[in-house]
Amino acid sequence: MKGNGYGNDNGGGGARFLREETYSASRKNVEEALSLTPDAYRDGDFFLAEQKQIFARNWVAAMPAQTVANAGDIALAEVAGQSLIVARGDDGELRAFHNVCRHRGTRLCEENARGQKRIVCPYHGWGYNLRGECIGTPLFDKGANRRAIQMHDMSHLSGFDRKDYGLLPARADVWGGMLFLCLDESAPPLADVVGDLPSRLARYRLQEWLPLARRDYDIRCNWKLLFENAVEYYHLPWVHPRLAKTSRVSDHRRWQGRGMYCGICTSPVTATDDAGWLSMRALPGLSDEEKVSGYFFGVFPNLIYFVMPSHAFVIVASAIAPGRTVENAWLIAHPECAGDATEKDIAEVADFWNEVNLEDVAICEKVQRGVSLAAYPGGRLCYHFEEPVHRFQQMVIDNMTGIRRVPRGDEDPPRKSAAQAQPEARE
């Protein structure tokens, strides 16, 4: 878009989205920066490029780890358009594999399952254990019965060893009770991505939390709009009138450290009669500040985490198209909190967050309709409230241009308010 500060738009297809000069206006410090080029939210070529540059190269959140907690559990996930099988083997190890048979490429699994010992191809019966090893090739080798060998003699085949035909692996790891998957063998470990989050949230023991309720949302907007909305509080008074009573703008500050994440903190979270989150008791062992605080952050690229003293609302966002995102959302809590809660208590908390999320969905769909207009040239960020958005957009740009970089964070303890903070210089 010539003349709008977003750089040269020449270059067919999505090639321009891989070049640094496309983002020159957004690379400025947050006090001067424009938001991402509107094409990032509406252009099909950008969407295809980010599938390769972002989702195929990073650790992508998939589901609560509890989904595959026991040996024999199998779950399906999709990363950058690729179907993956996640399985817990009889050795207790969590593994991920591409959902394709090594014989002729048949899709192996269509749904989650429990108590499985093997995966069998529905086409020709090739079998695999949950370690990904090929354990059966019917009528193909000497593992077949005598009559089958006589009828289908494969002895003339040379150079075939089942050990060479195991399932194609992907990477799997767990943090914060959530399962992450990665297609890129060269990507840094998940520990680098989450950075200092494990230490900052250590007293919550998130690895022990369990899902209590789930809701799914099919949303008519770009995934980045949802992420950006989750990590800023500028919109709070206009979009969330009920939440604004318990999470006042004046009580917010940005909250982000070393790692591929960004977000905000509300402290104190005000207890009002219609707070909606008070039905469950706080987790024992939290610090005095944590007992009265809420932490709202996103882990790049697709995990949104709202951590409260007694529970968390967790969203996994899946980019389906430039203007469509599917959210899978879970209410999760530590057993020490959930064990004392009644079904009514849990329902009240789940309904509260569903109300909040539906308000976010509605406004983000309106933003999508706006940024999809050809006349929209992009806009300025408000530093006082939108520095986390700027930080997220730098991660997007880094990935689109092939840069691997983990942002450093604010000082700890952070400044009281975003208005008092200074812009974080780009490394």
Task: Supply database-style keywords.
427 residues; Naphthalene 1,2-dioxygenase Alpha Subunit, Chain A, domain 1; 16 strands; six-stranded antiparallel β-sheet; 2 domains; disordered C terminus; Rieske Iron-sulfur Protein; 11 helices
Task: Summarize the topology.
Layout (H helix, E strand, L loop, with lengths): L38 H4 L1 H12 L4 E5 L9 E6 L2 E7 L5 E5 L19 E3 L6 E3 L4 E3 L9 H6 L17 E7 L2 E5 L7 H5 L2 H4 L9 E10 L3 H8 L5 H4 L3 H4 L5 E3 L6 E6 L27 E6 L3 E5 L4 E10 L2 E10 L1 H4 L4 H29 L11 H18 L27
Antiparallel strand pairs: 1-9, 2-3, 3-4, 4-8, 5-6, 6-7, 8-9, 10-16, 11-12, 12-13, 13-14, 14-15, 15-16
Helix pairs in contact: 6-10
| Structural class estimated from helices and strands | alpha+beta
CATH fold category name of the largest domain: Naphthalene 1,2-dioxygenase Alpha Subunit, Chain A, domain 1
Return the average pLDDT rounded to an integer.
87
- Per the principal axes of the C-alpha atoms, what is the gross shape? globular
Quote the beta fraction: 15-25%
CATH superfamily of the largest domain: Naphthalene 1,2-dioxygenase Alpha Subunit, Chain A, domain 1
Rounded to an integer in angstroms, the radius of gyration calculated over CA atoms is 24 Å
CATH class of the largest domain: Alpha Beta
The largest sheet is: 7 strands, antiparallel
Q: What is the share of helical residues?
A: 10-25%
Number of helices: 11
State the end-to-end CA separation: 27 Å
Number of domains: 2
Helices and strands, in order, run as HHEEEEEEEHEEHHEHHHEEEEEEHHH
Query: How many β-strand stretches?
Result: 16
Low-confidence spans: 148-154, 412-427
